[in-house]
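Good morning,

Attaching, inline, the backbone tokens for the sequence recovery test we're adding to the shared suite. The designed sequence is right after.
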């Protein structure tokens, strides 16, 4: 396995899993503690941020019109 592939898998792929599991853990903990508003805002913020990222990415991929 090349060093670049190993780094990509360990940092990129595994980092994504840990980020998602931390998000899920935090959300479940808030719900179990009865912090429904805080958990809802936390999930809503994540959905909004993902939407904005995807919209910006799509906008950046549009061809540029010449002047």
């Amino acid at each position: 396995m090349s060093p670049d592939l190993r780094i990509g898998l360990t940092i990129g792929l595994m980092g994504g899993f840990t980020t998602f599991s931390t998000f899920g853990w935090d959300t479940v903990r808030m719900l179990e503690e009865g912090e429904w508003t805080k958990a809802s805002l936390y999930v809503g913020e994540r959905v909004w941020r993902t939407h904005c990222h995807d919209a910006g990415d799509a906008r950046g991929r549009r061809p540029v019109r010449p002047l």
